[in-house]
UniProtKB/TrEMBL annotation:
Organism encoding this protein: Streptomyces griseorubiginosus
Annotated keywords: Hydrolase, Protease, Serine protease
Family statement drawn from the similarity comment of this UniProt entry: Belongs to the peptidase S51 family.
Any one GO molecular function term: serine-type peptidase activity
Region called Disordered, residue ranges: 223-243
Record's compositionally biased regions (Basic and acidic residues): 228-243
Record protein name field: Peptidase E
Alphabetical list of CDD domains matching this protein: GAT1_Peptidase_E
InterPro entries to which the protein is assigned, alphabetical: Class_I_gatase-like (IPR029062), Peptidase_S51 (IPR005320)
Domain of life: Bacteria
GO annotation terms (biological process): proteolysis
Pfam families the record matches: Peptidase_S51
Length: 243
């Protein structure tokens, strides 16, 4: 277990594999490192709720975990939970990795099954919570999402483990940055922490302690309200080893 509640919120973590369709990139390995696991294979839970627990991607995650040397446990909620003891199994993990997709659907389904409360207990117990895109946004108060259609809209009912907004794919989706600024300026979102593709944010408790990257030249950003406007500040990410 991590020594204190830890979240790694990212716009990355996956890349094409050599002999597999997908492999885990440096951000996933960094989440595992932060768990402090040693002397055995890391236990990683893959949660694919945001893409409807698509079986083909669960298979790809199993392949990625095999190559990385992780023991992977998938948590499926469609059509029913695939585990007899969801909470106990979550609490046994070193890392939870949440896939991107529909953040709105993820949050709704998690709440139906009480997974929102389970994730909070896991976070407090030292399981490293992490993920990409929707799997990043879910830990915050809210952010921007295309869950409702191709036009980006605000989402403001995240789990709230972190008291900020979150902006993912900040450099690759041209609509994200202006919408984040508008939502922070009008008070819809609080201070918002954003990641370019390939960048992750590391939180100890609710404090942002570091930005890290698996792609050189990328950045993290904070957006705060300044009167009726906003202030954007760049956060220089540390380049992770091996990238």
């Amino acid at each position: 277990m991590a020594t204190e509640p830890t979240i790694v919120a990212t716009s990355g973590g996956h890349r094409a594999g050599g002999r597999t369709m997908v492999s885990f990139h440096a951000l996933v390995h960094h989440a595992v490192d932060l768990s402090g696991v040693h002397g055995r294979r890391p236990r990683v839970m893959y949660v694919g709720t945001a893409i409807g627990d698509a079986e083909h991607f669960t298979s790809r995650m199993h392949e990625a975990a095999r190559v990385a040397g992780f023991d992977l446990t998938p948590l499926h909620l469609f059509p029913m939970p695939n585990l007899d003891d969801v909470e106990g199994t979550v609490l046994e993990q070193d890392v939870v990795w949440v896939m991107g997709g529909s953040a709105a659907n993820l949050l709704a389904v998690w709440r139906v099954h009480g997974l929102d409360r389970i994730m909070r207990r896991a976070w407090e117990a030292g399981v490293v919570l992490s993920g990409v895109s929707a799997g990043s946004l879910c830990w915050f108060q809210g952010g921007t999402t295309d869950s409702y259609g191709p036009e980006l809209r605000p989402l403001n009912d995240g789990l709230g483990l972190l008291p900020y907004g979150n902006g993912v794919h900040y450099d690759s989706d041209p609509g994200r940055r202006p919408l984040v600024h508008r939502l922070v300026a009008d008070g819809t979102l609080p201070e918002t922490h954003c990641t370019d593709d390939g960048v992750g944010l590391v939180y100890r408790g609710t404090e942002l302690v570091e930005a890290v990257t698996e792609i050189p030249g990328k950045s993290a950003w904070t957006v705060t309200r300044d009167g009726t406007s906003t202030r954007e500040e760049r956060v220089e990410p540390r380049r992770l080893p091996g990238v």
